[in-house]
Amino acid sequence: PSGGQSRQAIKDIPFPEYGVTIPKGAYVNLSIYGGNRDERVFAHPDKFDIMRPDLYVGKALRAGYHDNGQASHLGFGLGKHFCVGYQLAQTETVIGSRMLMDVMRNPRFKPGSQPRPIAISLEPWELWIEFDPA
Description:
The protein is an alpha+beta fold. The chain has one domain: CATH 1.10.630.10. It is built from 2 helices and 12 strands. The protein has helices spanning about 30-35, 85-105; strands spanning about 5-10, 15, 20, 25-30, 55, 60, 65, 70-75, 105-110, 115, 125, 130-134. The strands form 6 sheets. A two-stranded antiparallel ribbon has the order 1-4. A hairpin with a 2-residue loop joins strand 5 and strand 6. The protein is elongated, with a radius of gyration of 19 Å.
């Protein structure tokens, strides 16, 4: 996923509490990466936990807003910019994960390997793992 998005202000946007106004026409960079790691919203923001309770409603991945109006996470965007492929991505993730777990047992990092990050997004360039066949 991308760590951010840019938008252009279509009108002046005042923030009187900070004494700042974003002028019409200015570009604003939104940090999705930072927003998804707000410790005021997420108990353990830097821990990778695919079963994190705030991400789910029952067994379905929550995307968009909680009932209280707070964003659950920003990975798929929000509002009119919400990802139209969200349900396909969710389905592919569930099916792909199940297929992998059908053939992999005890996955682990290959000894001596180190994930090599890519600067523009959050996935590693490569990640070597070993596993026991099912």
